[in-house]
Q: What sequence folds into this?
């Protein structure tokens, strides 16, 4: 590929997991400042912008509002909003825009004050109640008292039924991610947990326990993409976008065609194929862990193991600290932070690892990372393959 | 979830706003009938209702469903503080696979939540929630 090869040049986080002094726009702004400081670009260098409103806050932080607020003089803008995986889709879209020359420096920002403004309601409250009639596809679900966690719970139940997956196997995912959270001073929960701790935590939606569910937090992030050529005189080594692909199977959970298979079965192999990378070549996996079952399904669909064998796969310890393919090395959504749409943290953590900036959580010889986001209710999945080196 | 407790809280639920595609479905249920769409070109059944066949973009017609199905998957909600569900907890939310092959979300009623099993046979129980809306609940087939 020529000099327009797309790379990630800067990353930044706002403050998490609890930041009552910040509103959503503050999170966007702070993350932007820190991403600029990380790479040494000037704000005036930015000519592409991507942002999705959170929908979880009173703030209005969709792309055109935030482009105005941050005064981004863009030649190219994208406000795609598909839930937590939005930022994995953004890498795909931005890579294409950069390669085509539609813009040179793309900024992505995200910010959410969900915990401080709304409390811990997202996963366990009904979507709506009372006198307001519900429109659109949600009208077929709103009347049944389901909660967000319930959709994932139904996927877990079906997986257990078809493949014999056990609650202990799902719990193993939460235990491994918590170990990494212990190495992240910002993580919301850092004390080690055991499989038994997960299984004895309160049942939220059978068969998912409290510790099978992600945390609710505040937080924000930003990353900046540019061309390989532009990255030459910047502060940090570029991280290369080797492959990216996205797909969707449904939006509302009751329309999911097969509750044990996500759109990652399509976009995972596509992204890996573009990158010329096999699952066993991946050094670290940053995967959307809204719930433990989310990780299990995505691992299978991406081809890290066969469909139905995710339970045995996680039990091997391959995803643990010191394992062959460590998972969610920042402590993930299960323990570190989940401000509503966590996908940007997957990208930033993958970049941190590929740069060798992981500190105690650094994966040795980390050259290839996968970030796989899940948005909606296992609905919109995008997979990004990032590399320390380019495709040459 | 007893039927009496259900009836008393039905109107507190977040009920649908019928639209062009769904009006006939909800109205039929209000009259005690479960209907689904079938494509006049490719014969595929679909749920939820749409202005076209989502498989082939053809036209659809309404057909009566048999009212029988099986439990594809389910969860049990242990706690829900909302007025509509507080008194019903714990309650089952499930995905029902109808004999016609389509699936829908519903509550599985007249069944202890500990007795629920994937694959169990179910039959529909339609309760009227408003003049223009009936809600199809499902319960285990007995006898």
A:
């Amino acid at each position: 590929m020529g000099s327009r090869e797309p790379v990630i040049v800067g990353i930044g986080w706002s403050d998490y997991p609890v930041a009552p002094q910040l509103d959503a726009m503050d999170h966007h702004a702070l993350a932007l400042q820190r991403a600029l400081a990380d790479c040494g670009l000037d704000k005036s260098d930015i000519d592409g912008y991507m942002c999705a409103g959170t929908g979880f806050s009173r703030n209005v932080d969709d792309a055109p509002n935030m482009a105005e607020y941050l005064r981004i003089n863009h030649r190219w803008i994208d406000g795609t909003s598909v839930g937590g995986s939005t930022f994995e889709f953004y890498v795909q879209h931005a890579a294409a825009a950069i390669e085509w020359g539609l813009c040179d420096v793309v900024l992505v920002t995200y910010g959410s004050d969900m915990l401080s403004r709304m409390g811990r309601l997202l996963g366990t409250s009904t979507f709506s109640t009372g006198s307001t009639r519900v429109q659109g596809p949600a009208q077929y679900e709103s009347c049944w008292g389901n909660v967000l966690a319930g959709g994932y719970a139904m996927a877990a139940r079906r997986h257990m039924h078809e493949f014999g997956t056990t609650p202990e196997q799902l719990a193993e995912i939460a235990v491994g991610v918590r170990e990494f959270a212990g190495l992240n001073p910002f993580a919301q929960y850092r004390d080690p947990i055991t499989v038994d701790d997960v299984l004895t935590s309160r049942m939220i939606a059978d068969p998912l326990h409290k510790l099978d569910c992600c945390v609710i937090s505040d937080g924000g992030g930003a990353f900046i993409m540019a061309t390989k050529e532009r990255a030459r005189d910047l502060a940090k080594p570029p991280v290369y976008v080797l492959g990216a692909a996205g797909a969707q199977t449904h939006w509302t959970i009751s329309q999911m065609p097969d509750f044990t298979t996500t759109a990652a079965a399509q976009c995972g192999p596509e992204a890996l194929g573009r990158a010329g990378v096999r699952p066993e070549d991946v050094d670290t996996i940053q995967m959307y862990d809204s719930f433990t079952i989310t990780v299990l399904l995505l691992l299978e669909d991406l081809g890290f193991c066969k469909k139905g064998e995710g339970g045995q796969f996680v039990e091997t310890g391959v995803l643990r600290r010191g394992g062959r393919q460590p998972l969610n090395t920042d402590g993930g959504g299960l323990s570190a932070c989940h401000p509503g749409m966590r996908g940007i943290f997957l990208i930033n953590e993958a970049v941190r690892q590929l740069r060798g900036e992981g500190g105690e959580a650094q994966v040795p010889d980390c050259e290839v990372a996968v970030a796989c986001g899940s948005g909606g209710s296992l609905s919109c999945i995008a997979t990004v393959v990032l590399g320390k080196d380019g495709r040459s | 979830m007893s039927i009496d407790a259900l009836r008393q809280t039905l109107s507190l639920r977040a009920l649908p706003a019928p639209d062009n595609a769904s009006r006939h479905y909800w109205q039929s249920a209000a009259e005690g009938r479960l209907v689904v769409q079938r494509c006049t070109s490719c014969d595929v059944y679909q749920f939820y209702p749409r202005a076209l066949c989502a498989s082939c973009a053809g036209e659809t017609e309404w057909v009566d469903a048999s009212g029988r199905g099986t439990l594809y998957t389910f969860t049990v909600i242990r706690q829900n503080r909302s007025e509509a569900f507080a008194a019903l907890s714990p309650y089952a939310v499930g995905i029902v696979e109808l004999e016609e092959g389509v699936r829908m979300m519903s509550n599985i009623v007249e069944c202890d939540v500990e007795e629920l099993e994937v694959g169990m046979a179910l039959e529909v129980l339609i309760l009227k929630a408003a003049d223009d809306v009936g809600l199809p609940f499902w319960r285990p087939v007995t006898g």
About this structure: Chain A has a mean pLDDT of 95. Residues 24-39 of chain A form the longest helix (16 residues).
